[in-house]
Amino acid sequence: MFNTSDIWETLRMIDHQKLDVRTITMGISLFNCVTDDEKLLCSRVYTRIARQAERLVEVGRAIEREYGVPIVNKRISVTPAALISGGIKHPEKLALALDSAAKETGVDFIGGYSALVHKAMTEADMRLIQSIPEALATTDLVCSSINIGSTRAGINMDAVRLMGQIVKQTAERTGDRDGLGCAKLVVFCNAVEDNPFMAGAFHGPGEGDCAVSVGVSGPGVVKVALEKVRGEPINVVAETVKRTAFQITRVGQLVAMEASRRLGVPFGIVDLSLAPTPAVGDSVAAILEEMGLECCGTHGTTAALALLNDAVKKGGVMASSNVGGLSGAFIPVSEDSGMIHAAEVGALSLDKLEAMTCVCSVGLDMIAIPGDTSAETIAAIIADEAAIGMVNNKTTAVRVIPAPGRREGDVVEFGGLLGHAPVIPVNRCSPAEFISRGGRIPAPLHSLRN
Amino acid sequence: MNEMRKAVVSVLGNDQRGIIAKVTRVLYEHDVNILDLSQTILSGLFSMVMMVDVSSEHCDFDSVSRELSALGEELGLQIRIQRGEIFDAMHHI
After folding, report:
1. In A, what residues contact B, Cβ < 8 A?
2. In chain B, which residues have their Cβ closer than 8 Å to the Cβ of A61?
């Protein structure tokens, strides 16, 4: 086991290539808190989370110290709030309880102010969705996600229309912070129940009482590995990514097993996603450029991203006993220095980003659009993205920020891991009539595929 | 006798007198046993990796870790101790 060059390689990955575990996320079921008494529900939820996650941050820090691998975030995901708030009239009170519980435990974010409305909405779903702008404006750590479509159910266009308005209202309610509320709001198609990454994490109804999952990271490590195979054929690139993804994932698996043991909570999954941060050397765009593209967003980007996404999965699957979540490559524009640069020089458009989401793990993520973008246009962006997910049997998502008062070319600053983003133009022709129809797009046929 | 718990101590920085003496003194004071050691100097850069056993009941991992980091700061070196499993996981199936 004692091989000094292996040891130095690992240390280099941590010190210079930003190898880290992006998140340890504890999923907590809140079904046992259900009651129609608003105060009681909130106090039960608070107590349940505060007790269950009491040691999460402490254990995360201890693992970080002992193994010498940074664990950037400690997070909590809970049962979609709409599923437990059917008996109360003001779900935003529940958001406040979630926020206080998250602060009590010291985690970075709590996800699960969510509703699953891919086929239709219950009254509770409707109340929850309508409370999102208020909930995200009055809390600090709560994240919200709504699933509006799936391959089996089709796309709920009433929910899509509503979410266009909600995204807009959320931006306006947090207008003093450039619409920061929208950074905590994701609209999904085919949402997964065990995703440990924010803002889309929730603890699905098919999960158990509690589980810890880990999201790995490491775009910098992949980029450096590819620097060593410059000029080689593309299959060598794929093999190199696979090998590197394997190593990164093994760290995630180790941390997940150790966290599970120390917390006395079952191990959920390892999410194999390459998640960038705004720090230099931690960029997914830089990997694509290392493959030979002058700038991310140019022709060839989709092909390069498809290769990357697939090779990450292939390498990671063997390294972990349970793979889940979103697993692939993330392309959040404001959180990736290479994507920011590509958007600034005009190489990366909304249309190209949409094409890229056909082959990567999520969707249109952390994109600032003009503040005067209409709710219908936002709804239509959501519908397009959901259609890609529905037809291709994959998760897609939209997290756009219509920054109030900002125009194309302005820069929106979110701070910290959320980074900054240049405002990208949207198509100015109106989809309003299409969106106003409402109804449901039927589930797609899955034979006769072409 | 406890089951062995392996950890890796790594030291990197400008060479100077007494590095090994000072590092091993900290380990000795915490009842850490050295199992294997590899040390080289490449163009004035001192690099050392030690495989150690931290299973002794007199050994508190966090204190060893703190004292080694403090020593590192004092000597202008990067010194750290990490549980061995991480290296094993990344490089062996």
Report:
1. 1-4, 6-11, 62, 65-69, 247, 250-251, 253-254
2. none
Measured between alpha carbons, how far is A175 from A182 in angstroms, rounded to an integer?
Answer: 10
User: In Å, how far is A173's CA from the nearest CA of chain B?
Assistant: 45
Selection from A99, A98, A95, A147 nearest residue A120 by Cα: A147
Instruction: Give residue A212's pLDDT.
Output: 96
**Residue A371 in 3-state DSSP?**
coil
Q: How far is CA A365 from CA A10, A109, A185, A299, in A?
A: 30, 18, 10, 20
Rounded Cα distance, A94 and A128, in Å: 10
Distant-in-sequence, close-in-space partners of B71: CB < 8 Å, separation ≥ 6: B22, B23, B26, B77, B79
**Cα–Cα dist A448/A255, whole Å:** 44
Looking up tokens 């718990």 gives B5
pLDDT tens-place string over residues A316-325: 998 898 988 8
Q: Do B38 and A4 touch (CB under 8 A)?
A: yes
pLDDT in tens, A47-75: 999 999 999 999 999 999 999 999 999 99
What does the domain layout of chain A look like in residue ranges?
22-189, 216-440
Residues on chain B touching A69 (C-beta within 8 angstroms): 86
On the question of pLDDT at A384 being above 70, the answer is yes
What does DSSP assign to residue A296?
T
| B86/A251 touch (CB, cutoff 8 Å), yes or no | yes
Tell me how close the Cα of B1 comes to any Cα of chain A, in angstroms. Answer: 22
Give the gap in angstroms from C-alpha A247 to the nearest C-alpha of chain B.
Answer: 5
Contacts of A62 in chain B (CB under 8 A): 62
Q: What whole-number distance in Å separates Cα of residue A198 and Cα of residue A185? A: 9
CATH number of B6-91: 3.30.70.260
Reduce the DSSP state of residue A384 to 3 states and report it.
helix
- How do beta strands A364-370 and A396-403 pair? parallel
Written out in words, the top-level CATH class of the domain with range A22-189 is alpha beta
* ipTM of the complex as predicted: 0.88
Rounded (5°) CA angle B57-B62-B64: 75
- What is the dotted CATH code of the domain comprising A216-440? 3.20.70.20
